[in-house]
Design brief:
This protein is of the alpha+beta class. The chain contains three helices and four strands, in the order αββαβαβ. The longest helix is centred in the middle third of the chain and has 17 residues.
Length: 82
């Protein structure tokens, strides 16, 4: 059985929702926040036609938003391309 990275985030959001997931440049997100924001992005991507295995380009600086984007794409079934 495969255990996907996106599943790990969701699992931690259940196990330890208030634990720190990401800290970058003075900003931070808990696992619950990261899970919620990435789920929202994943839904938007699927609603706009993203199919399992589709590649999604990311052109943004490293930061909280890029982490949300990566997990959102993975949760939608896509593959991110930096």
């Amino acid at each position: 059985m495969r255990y996907l990275l996106s599943q790990a985030v969701s699992d931690w959001a259940v196990r330890a929702p208030n634990n720190l997931a990401i800290r970058f440049a003075g900003q931070s997100l808990t696992y619950q926040q990261l899970d919620s924001k990435s789920n929202s992005l994943g839904r938007v991507l699927r609603e706009n036609g993203l199919q399992r295995g589709d590649r999604v380009g990311i052109y943004m600086n490293k930061g909280i938003e890029s982490a949300i984007a990566i997990y959102g794409i993975l949760k939608a079934g896509g593959a991110y391309v930096p």
